[in-house]
Structure formats: structure tokens, C-alpha cells
Write a structure and sequence with these properties.
There is one protein chain. This protein is α/β, with parallel strands linked by helices. The protein has a single domain, classed as Rossmann fold (3-Layer(aba) Sandwich). Helices cover 30% and strands 17% of the residues. It contains seven helices and ten strands. The strands form two sheets. A seven-stranded parallel sheet has the order 1-10-9-6-2-3-5, with helices on one face. The chain has a three-stranded antiparallel sheet with strand order 4-8-7, with helices on one face. Helix 1 crosses helix 2. It is globular and about 45 Å long. 42% of the residues are buried. This is Glucosamine-6-phosphate deaminase. One of its GO terms (molecular function) is glucosamine-6-phosphate deaminase activity. Its EC number is 3.5.99.6. Belongs to the glucosamine/galactosamine-6-phosphate isomerase family. NagB subfamily. InterPro entries: Glc/Gal-6P_isomerase, Glucosamine6P_isomerase, Glucosamine6P_isomerase_CS, NagB/RpiA_transferase-like.
Length: 246
């Protein structure tokens, strides 16, 4: 595991974007696993800036997103497909037909998850998976539980996750209570994983996840078993790190 200590969110975003751009340059037809939320926004903004300068070409890239709310259409402003289009895909030369997000409108969970597992399998595998870290240690929407979920599944969102997402909706009643998410097995099969973390409010959970016991009660702790993980975190997120950083 490699730890990159960033000064702040902007520096973290730039460092993470450097890693993603290097992946695309080294393998133009790579498969990127992408995340949503506030953590990767700065990374996407930096990649767009470099694309506009002609430094990076996404025309042969395939992307597979981690998750999507069950019940939201791609046109819904709070859906993750809408997020990816407006914050990244619409601003680069990627083929939208090769950008994949779980189908939130498929209400049959078995069909939705089976279809997404097939997409992941047919992609040939994720070369680089970008992850954020939830306040309760979730990655994707893999919430704390009694076991590590293997492949794409429908999850009942934890109350802490619902409350964290409340700010994006007019009321808590409108916040989706379920989501489709790639499972831990799918995430761990990525060749490389980049975990980005910012803010003092994530400091304790980051330290517990990567320096504490491996347990499904803290899903991100499984990353300790992956052989190629890069953590890009700012000083605030590393403020409670219990080990020496080289």
C-alpha cells in the first residue's frame, strides 16, 4: 500500500488525476472503475482541464461505475448516471456507449444485478478502480454488515448514508433507501485501486479501515488485502493516522 499525503483537497484531486491520466496514457483502451460523490469531483475537474489542453484522450476508454440508486432514472438530477454525465462524460471525448452505470429503473434486483455482473465480466476486468470512503467505512454502497458481499447486489442503505445524502434532496423522504452496488469481490478484482480521502471528519475511519482489523463491519478494511492500493489523502484526513508514513 502506498500513501500519498496531499496538502488539501485540491492537491489530493490533482495527485489522483495524475494517477488516472497515467493509466489512460499507458493503456488507451483501459477500463476505469469510477466513483461518485464529492470526493472525486476535483479529480474529474482536473482530468477535464487536461483533456481540454490536449493532454489526454478518452476515446477508447471504458468506464464502469460503482453504484446507482434503485428507482432513479438517468435523467433524475440525483442519479449517479446524471452525476457522471454532467460532471465528467459530457466534457470529454468518451463514447457514452462504453460508460456503464447500474440500471436504477430496473426494479427487479435479480435482473439488474445479474446484468451488471455480466457487464463487468465482459469488460475484461477493471484496470484501475477509483474509490471514496464513507463515514461508516463503506466503499461503493457496500455497507457495514456480517459478511463481505461478493458481486453486484441490491443493498439497503444505512441510516448514516441516508443522512449524508439528505443534503442532495428536498426532504429525507425523497432520499432512496436502496441502491445497486458492485460487490467487494468485484472491487477487489481490479488490478489497481486508488482510494481518495479528504477532511478531518474522515480521519478516524480512514485509520481504522487501513490500520485496524479486517472485518465486514468496516467494509473498506478489505483493501488491506489488495496487492496494489494507492491512498491519496490530504493532511486533515491523515491527522489520526497511527502508523508512520514514508
Amino acid at each position: 500500500m502506498i500513501i500519498y499525503k496531499a496538502e488539501d483537497y485540491k492537491d489530493m484531486s490533482r495527485k489522483a488525476a495524475n494517477i488516472l491520466s497515467a493509466q489512460v496514457i499507458m493503456k488507451p483502451n483501459c477500463v476505469l472503475g469510477l466513483a461518485t460523490g464529492s470526493s472525486p469531483l476535483g479529480t474529474y475537474k482536473q482530468l477535464i482541464e487536461w483533456y481540454n489542453k490536449g493532454d489526454i484522450d478518452f476515446s477508447h476508454v471504458t468506464t464502469i461505475n460503482l453504484d446507482e440508486y434503485k428507482g432513479l432514472s438517468p435523467e433524475n438530477e440525483q442519479s449517479y448516471r446524471f452525476f457522471m454525465n454532467t460532471n465528467f462524460f459530457d466534457h470529454i471525448n468518451i463514447d457514452k456507449k462504453r460508460t456503464f452505470v447500474p440500471d436504477g429503473l430496473e426494479m427487479d434486483s435479480e435482473i439488474a444485478t445479474k446484468n451488471y455482473n455480466e457487464i463487468i465480466k465482459n469488460s475484461g476486468g477493471v484496470d484501475l478502480q477509483l474509490l471514496g470512503l464513507g463515514h461508516n467505512g463503506h466503499i461503493g454502497f457496500n455497507e457495514p454488515g456480517e459478511q463481505f458481499e461478493r458481486e453486484t447486489h441490491c443493498v439497503n442503505l444505512a441510516q448514516t448514508t441516508i443522512e449524508a445524502n439528505r443534503r442532495f434532496f428536498e426532504s429525507e423522504d425523497q432520499v432512496p433507501k436502496q441502491a445497486y452496488t458492485m460487490g467487494i469481490k468485484s472491487i477487489m478484482q481490479a488490478k489497481k485501486i486508488v482510494l481518495i480521502v479528504s477532511g478531518e471528519d474522515k480521519a478516524e475511519i480512514l485509520d481504522r479501515a487501513l490500520n485496524g482489523p479486517i472485518t465486514p463491519e468496516l467494509p473498506a478494511s478489505i483493501l488491506q488485502l489488495h496487492n496494489d492500493v494507492i491512498v491519496v489523502a490530504d493532511k486533515a484526513a491523515l491527522s489520526k493516522w497511527s502508523k508512520k508514513i514514508y
